[in-house]
Specification:
The complex is a heterodimer of chains A (457) and B (331). Chain A has helices spanning 109-114, 136-145, 158-161, 186-193, 195-208, 224-237, 255-263, 283-295, 325-331, 388-392, 399-407, 411-416, 427-431, 438-450, and strands spanning 25-26, 33-36, 46-47, 54-55, 60-63, 72-73, 78-88, 92-101, 172-177, 214-220, 241-246, 278-282, 301-307, 315-320, 339-344, 351-352, 366-371. Chain A is an alpha/beta fold and 457 residues long. Chain A has 4 domains: 26-100, OB fold (Dihydrolipoamide Acetyltransferase, E2P) (Beta Barrel); 135-294, Rossmann fold; 301-372, Ubiquitin-like (UB roll) (Roll); 388-450, no CATH class. Chain B folds into 2 domains: 1-30, no CATH class; 33-321, Ammonium transporter fold (Orthogonal Bundle), CATH 1.10.3430. Classes of the chains: A alpha/beta (457), B mainly alpha (331). Chains A and B meet through helix 9, strand 15, strand 16, strand 17 and helix 13 of A and helix 1 of B.
Chain lengths: 457, 331
């Protein structure tokens, strides 16, 4: 049987060999952490603590501000030093609490005399729930309470994704283990090191979506070990979870591409996967859900890959949320002399960091330090009309044409050619011999199309 | 609980001052415009080598003339319009080389240089430079030469003298104007493949052109859709007329004149060909049909050049008609 995949796409050099054999390592907590209030898609959370407060690990620092939002918990026990506007990944600044890890001040003598309990720095956990008896609504409530967000990149609040409207029945829940971004090996390591927990997470997610949902996990065939280990874990558990072996091709891990490859359904333009009865969750999200339900954990660390030829010791790390990029890179031996760019996320869709003070957040999946050797950049020329971008575009757009329309500020024309369907996967710009910054033009176009008055029909 | 980095500032290479800030993606396939142009140039070398073998080193004079005319014009126009120099991207060199390959072996180098000037000046620069031209610049140059120097453009004496051919003309010339009794020797498939026939510098050896085509397709530079559709169209339309008793065999159509050279090196020009595979099939089939019609019913022995130029003009229309359906959308 031919391997499952989709039309278009590209084969960027994988560079997974830099970290794929490196087991997850726990990075020590840094001297100060910076916890942004907005670590998710949607409204930033509202702070519940103030300067000088002592907070415990797992304590709610900020409450969800509305339906599409998520609470933020304290990754460490320590003192809130201040509330600042600091740099975040993506080129902006955001409100963040600065927390200095440490022990609480001892009680004054008179309070001790009154018999008050001494303060503690022990983690504050949610009550563990039983895997076998917990119900779907209980799981969703726990996911909401724990502030879990999607680990696949967009950081969409997971509880919202698990609550599809009643008129959109879901019959497939597929875990995204494609990890199609080059360099990143985070999901791969999680699958190798915690397969049983992932299976439990899948079963829990399945329970939130009703009786009739089929469960699956899609893994690219460049990870045969992960496929084998996951299959074993599923058999051991006697779980009804199907493993989809996917062709290694970027962007196989895009939601639409994964659904197409696994179950052969095409998500219409502008629609969400639930339109075709599917929900996609990342491997890391499944684990976060499992830990929140069974252990009562809240996200306090992020699992990520630190890689690239510009970092001395590439690693897979478990990092305290709020740790500045600078400290993570330093923990990996620092940068090489020819390091030029720090990318947060994968090399195809990640953001170049403008400040190394930006902190690791819940959904950070990778930090890449790219060197001059990886960033060969000949000059941009005019578009040759070669059509390679159109050939590679997984959603059948004409990127060169759309970029030109954006350049000419012809937003209506760009909208009519479907610019909003673009998921900014970077496939077009990767393949462009003229080195046009196509994604940049497409983003510009999308932003302006969103600002257009609604089309009259 | 200490900062694991010590001071946290030991990152000389990636300090805030010199961080690269660009949008994703951060990796690239590695190709550039220049790389493509020089690879196509390399793919033309077998044709040039065969031409030197059959017709002598003298053929290098018109080729060099066309290149000097094209590159010189590119350089001068860039200077005059205060634009960045684009000679290094190799496209003007390639246009000159392509033009030089589609003139007769004994063609005047000075006239070839004039063709190069027109190819770049009128074929490319007036449209706004690389990527903006409607027509294949080398063919624009050739059309100019055909109109301006008709005698030189149909003088095959140099070629004929060197290859010791029975003919006094090209195979297609014979077909149109010649004595049918001379057909057998000149129309032999082996000679068309090897190239020891009268014809333009780069067009004579089908084998050398096919080798270039294999290079272009194997390196994924050229779209095989254009090459295959044009050849399939030539075989189909040529074959239909042949069955109806009009014209030579379809194989003769494909191997003679500029058909193969046009399919491999001219119709595949990115700028002047359609974007999508469906469009490329329409384009290739259209060129083949026009070529066969001109050859069989037109006033000229050969029609590839005009067929491609006409199809170039239809490209915007083809692109519009073959716009891909957006993923997941209903047709």
């Amino acid at each position: 049987m031919p391997l499952r995949s989709f039309r278009g796409g590209v084969h960027p050099p994988e560079h997974k060999e830099l970290t794929e054999h490196k087991a997850l390592e726990l990075m020590p907590v840094p001297a100060e952490i910076f916890v942004p209030m907005g670590q998710h898609l949607g409204k930033p959370a509202s702070p519940l603590v103030k300067k000088g407060d002592y907070v415990r690990q797992g304590q709610v620092l900020a409450a969800a501000a509305g339906f599409i939002s998520a609470p933020v918990h304290s990754p460490v026990s320590g003192k809130v030093v201040k509330l600042v506007k600091g740099p975040v990944v993506g080129g902006t600044t955001a409100d963040m609490l600065v927390v200095q890890p440490g022990e609480p001040d001892p009680l004054p003598a008179d309070k001790v005399a009154e018999g008050a309990a001494p303060p503690t720095s022990a983690p504050l956990l949610l009550p563990p729930l039983d895997l076998n008896t917990v119900t779907g609504p209980e799981i969703i409530e726990r996911v909401r309470e724990a502030g879990i967000v999607g680990q696949g990149g967009a950081a969409f609040p997971t509880a919202v994704k698990l609550s599809p409207p009643a008129d959109k029945p879901i019959d497939w829940m597929i875990i995204n283990g494609a990890e199609c971004e080059p360099y990143l090996t985070r999901d791969y390591r999680l699958m190798l090191e915690r397969p049983d927990d992932i299976v439990e997470g899948i079963l829990l997610i399945g329970r939130t979506l009703g009786e009739n949902v089929n469960l699956g996990i899609g893994i690219e065939n460049n990870k045969p070990e992960a496929i084998r280990v996951m299959r074993e874990a599923i058999v051991k558990r006697q779980a009804a979870i199907r493993v989809f072996e996917l062709k290694t091709k970027y962007p196989q891990g895009g939601e639409k591409m994964l659904i197409d490859a696994a179950v052969g359904r095409k998500v219409p333009p502008g629609a969400l996967p639930m339109e075709v009865g599917c929900v996609i969750q990342n491997v890391g999200t499944a684990l976060a859900i499992r830990d929140a339900v069974i252990l009562g954990e809240v996200p306090r660390t992020a699992v990520l890959t630190v890689s690239g030829l510009g970092v001395k010791e590439p690693k897979n790390l478990q990092v305290t949320i709020g740790t500045p990029l600078r400290d993570v890179i330093a923990f990996c031996g620092g940068a090489t002399a020819d390091a030029r760019r720090v990318v947060v996320g994968g090399p195809m869709m990640g953001f170049a960091a403008y400040s190394l003070d930006a902190p690791v957040v819940k959904a950070t999946s990778g930090i890449l330090v790219l060197s001059e050797r990886e960033l060969k950049e000949p000059p941009e020329t005019t578009c040759l009309n070669c059509g390679k971008c159109a050939e590679a575009c997984p959603v059948n757009l004409l990127p060169s044409r759309l970029a030109r329309l954006a350049e000419l500020q012809r937003w209506e024309a760009a909208r009519d050619l479907g610019i909003e369907v673009c998921m900014e996967c970077g496939t077009c710009a990767f393949t462009c011999p003229a080195r046009k910054p196509l994604v940049q033009y497409l983003r510009l176009g999308k932003k302006n199309v969103r600002n257009l008055p609604r089309k009259e029909r | 609980m200490a900062n694991p980095s010590g001071t946290g500032s030991e990152l000389p290479a990636v300090s805030e001052g010199n961080l690269h800030l660009v949008t994703s993606p951060h990796v690239h396939f590695g190709w550039s415009t220049a790389r493509i142009m020089w690879l196509v140039t390399a793919a033309l070398l077998p044709c040039l080598a065969v031409a030197v073998y059959h017709f002598g080193p003298g053929v290098l004079a018109p080729v060099a003339g066309a290149i000097v005319g094209a590159v010189g014009t590119e350089w001068v126009l860039n200077r005059a319009s205060r634009r960045p120099d684009t000679v290094g991207d190799g496209s003007a060199f390639l246009t000159g080389l392509l033009l030089g390959m589609i003139v007769p072996p004994g063609f005047s180098p000075v006239h070839a240089a004039l063709g190069g000037v027109v190819a770049i000046g009128l074929g490319k620069a007036v449209f706004g430079g690389l990527g903006h031209n409607t027509f294949n610049p080398a063919l624009v140059g050739r059309a100019f030469l055909q109109a301006s120097f008709p005698a030189g453009m149909t003088d095959w004496s140099t070629a004929v003298a060197r290859v010791d051919a029975v003919s006094r003309a090209t195979p297609l010339g014979l077909l149109k104007f010649g004595d049918p009794s001379q057909f057998p020797a000149d129309l032999a498939t082996e000679r068309l493949l090897a190239g020891n026939i009268g014809g333009c510098i780069g067009e004579t050896s089908a084998a050398a052109i096919l080798l270039g085509g294999v290079i272009l397709v194997a390196t994924r530079i050229a779209s095989w859709h254009i090459i295959v559709s044009m050849l399939a169209g030539g075989a189909l339309f040529g074959g239909l007329f042949h069955l109806a008793g009009v014209g030579p065999s379809p194989l003769f159509h494909l191997l003679s004149g500029g058909f193969l050279f046009g399919a491999v090196f001219m119709a595949t020009d990115y700028v002047s060909s359609p974007l999508t595979h469906r469009g490329q099939w329409i384009f290739g089939l259209g060129i083949a049909l026009l070529t066969i019609m001109i050859r069989l019913f037109g006033g000229l022995p050969e029609g590839v050049m005009y067929a491609i130029l006409l199809a170039n003009a239809a490209v915007p229309l083809i692109n519009r008609a073959t716009r891909p359906t957006i993923y997941g959308a209903k047709r």
